[in-house]
Amino acid sequence: MAIFMDRHDLKGYSAADVAEAHRKDLEVQDEYGVKFLTYWFDHQRGTAFCLIDAPDKETAQCVHRVAHGHVAGEVVEVALSAVEAFLGRIQDPEPPVGKSQNEDCAHRAIMFTDIVGSTEMTARLGDRMGTELVRAHDSVVRRCLKEHGGSEVKHTGDGIMASFVSTTQAVDCATAIHQGFHRYNRGNAEPIHIRIGIDCGEPVEDSNDLFGTTVQLAARLCSAASTDQILVSESVFRNQHSSATFTETARLQLKGFSMPIPAFECAWAGPVGI
Question: Which helix (H) or strand (E) element contains residue 264?
Answer without folding.
Answer: strand 263-266
